[in-house]
Amino acid sequence: MRTWQKVMLLTALVAGPVSVHAGVYAFVDDQGVAHFSNVPADGRYRLLIETPEDSPSGDTTDRRSDWLARAPQYDGLINGAAKDATIQADLVRAVIVVESGFNPRAVSRKGAVGLMQLQPATARRYGVKDIYNPEQNVRAGARYLSDLLIRFDSNLELALAAYNAGEEAVERYGRHVPPFRETLAYVPSVMKVYQRLKRQAHAAT
Known about the structure:
By secondary structure, this protein is mainly alpha-helical.
């Protein structure tokens, strides 16, 4: 699988509305490297995903573009964290896309922090000392995802619902996706990015 930075398609889902193009666009060049932008000036760009109504990080369009441009620097970290947690790197990328748009300083209204938007209690659970540190944040988030997949018998939708709404909420609703507006939007958003990343990776091989 290429560094083609499926990663970037990321911002598509987390970035708030953009002024001209409501989405993130990408193309993979001849070297297998993926390029991403919210302003598709090159004719090779294709829409990856529409942007949601709200940006968890509250970034401006210019700042979102900055994070998007920096996304490739996390590729090695994501691959390593995913391997150690025995989950797919594209799944970790998809969560980061939707959660933070690759902004390591992102803080949600509910207090979730960093690339994978960890709650402080979850960060402590996985031994995170600096929740803003990209390596600690991503490694803890990947391990949490892995544990959720184990808890919910490899049911990805339930694991993602638990990542968003909490494990107890999923249990409380009979091991179904809780009927929360945010969660009902979150799960398919991550699934869509994840599936597109997998398809692009396959096409690039």
